[in-house]
Each structure stands twice: as C-alpha cells, then as structure tokens.
Amino acid sequence: MELLELLKFAFLGLLQGFTEPIPISSSGHLVIAQELFGLDIKGLSFEILMNFASLLAVLLVYRKDLIRLTANGVQYIVSREESSKSDFMFIVYLVIATIPAAVLGLTFEDFIGDQLKGLKIVGATLIITGIALWLIRNLRGSKGESELNLRDAIIVGLAQAVALIPGISRSGATIVAAMGIGMKQETALRFSFLLFIPVSVGTMVFGISDLHFGDLLIPYIVAFLLSLMASYFSLKWFMNIMARGNLIYFAIYCFIAGALILII
C-alpha cells in the first residue's frame, strides 16, 4: 500500500465523517471524492465501515437520551406509568419511521447502487437538497417530543427513504420533513439522529457478510478512526448551528456544489 493511497483513504474517512451529520450528503461527497481520486472501491465494505463509525459517534453524543428513553420505555411497558408514556411512544415512532427506508432500501438496493451514483445525479440531488433547506430556513416549530404522532413518524420516515439516493442528505431530508410538519428544531434534530441508529444497525446486520478487506485492512482502519472522530465533532458543531438557525449556509453550499458538478 503506497502512502498516497493511504492518504486518499484517510481523506475519504474524514470527508465521510464530517459530512454524515450535516445536511450536505455524505454519500454524494464520497462519490465525488472517489471520482476525483480515481478510486474504484469495490463492494460495500467501505460504506458499511464508515456508516458504523458515524453510528458510534451518534451513540456517544446521544447516550444520555438513549439511556433515558430505554429506561422510561421499559418502565412504561412494565408499570404503564403515565409519566413514561411520551418516551415510550417516541421509541415507537422511531421504529415506524424506520420502516420506509428499510423496505425501499432492501427492494431497490441494486438499482440505487448501480444506476444512481453518477456525478450528474449527485449534482442534481445536491441542488434539490439545497432547495429543501432553503424552504425551511426560517421555520421555528412548536411541536415537542410529547406531541408527536403517527403521521409525523410516517412523513419523516418517507423523507429518510428518499435520502437513499446519493446527493440527498439523510439528515437534511429528515430535518426538513420534521421542521416542515412543525417540530421544534431541537426535537427535529434529536428525532433525525436517533432515527439514524436503527437504519445504521440494519445496514450493519444485512451487510456484515459483505465485509471483505483484503489488502486494504490498514487504510480501512485509518479511515474508520478518522471518520469516527470527524462524525463526533461535526455532529456537535451541527447541533450548535441548528440552535442558531443557520441552515441557510448549508443550502447555499448545496446550490454551489451541485451547480459546479453539473457544469464541470
């Protein structure tokens, strides 16, 4: 393994980790980077491993929420205590919102992987992501976790399913949908990233048999560690951005990046 090749994988790990939490599409940026570097990464091993790194970062950032939801969810099942019901229902809605992406992902996995990874597709879908972010840039919802319902879960779940297309940001699509139906920014952010967990776990479970590293074990490990660190700090940074309501900057970035890809 040459040093240059190792550096390319290190950069891909950083890129994926940094772009995964923010609404500019990590999958789209990986397609662009692989084209620029002339890398043809076979199979899904790299994507699965980078996905797992981002999953660990989300678990670290939201560990307190996960502990609270689990404890209250179990408490409600056991005792039907009313004070725990909203957390239990939040878990139920996360499960429901996972279904569309799971079904469509399994059904159209080959089509998405073979037909929707071109640069023109990524350029166009980045612009679509930018338009969606622009439309909700000034929204300030009022709906908290205890006010969510089945309709909300289905809408956000369908948005996540659309994000299976490279260039459509998963976090962007789910946050746009959540804020579009009136969720508070904090609630939209939490629902979006906790929703990432079951989808990511499913990707790992169904893709683990495809994990083959060969002579790329070292660059994959380097990329994994860098992706983990980048995902963690990027998510913390994005949480601050959301608190200040500055999504417009991501919309502008998506417009510029998408247009440059289509032109160049």
UniProtKB/TrEMBL annotation:
The reaction(s) annotated as catalysed by this protein in its Swiss-Prot or TrEMBL entry are: di-trans,octa-cis-undecaprenyl diphosphate + H2O = di-trans,octa-cis-undecaprenyl phosphate + phosphate + H(+)
Q: Which InterPro entries match?
A: UppP (IPR003824)
GO BP terms, alphabetized: cell wall organization; peptidoglycan biosynthetic process; regulation of cell shape; response to antibiotic
Keywords assigned: Antibiotic resistance, Cell membrane, Cell shape, Cell wall biogenesis/degradation, Hydrolase, Membrane, Peptidoglycan synthesis, Transmembrane, Transmembrane helix
What Gene Ontology cellular-component terms does the record carry? plasma membrane
Instruction: Write out the annotated subcellular location.
Output: Cell membrane
Q: What class of enzyme is it?
A: hydrolase
TM regions (residue ranges): 43-62, 88-106, 118-136, 188-209, 216-235, 247-263
Q: Name one GO molecular function term.
A: undecaprenyl-diphosphatase activity
EC numbers listed for it are 3.6.1.27
According to the lineage, what is the superkingdom? Bacteria
How does the record say this protein sits in the membrane?
Answer: Multi-pass membrane protein
**HAMAP family given for it?**
Undec_diphosphatase
Which PANTHER family has this protein been placed in?
Answer: UNDECAPRENYL-DIPHOSPHATASE
| Functional summary from the UniProt entry | Catalyzes the dephosphorylation of undecaprenyl diphosphate (UPP). Confers resistance to bacitracin.
In the record, the note on similarity to other proteins reads: Belongs to the UppP family.
Q: What does the record's miscellaneous section state? A: Bacitracin is thought to be involved in the inhibition of peptidoglycan synthesis by sequestering undecaprenyl diphosphate, thereby reducing the pool of lipid carrier available.
Name of the protein this chain belongs to: Undecaprenyl-diphosphatase
Organism, as annotated: Guptibacillus hwajinpoensis
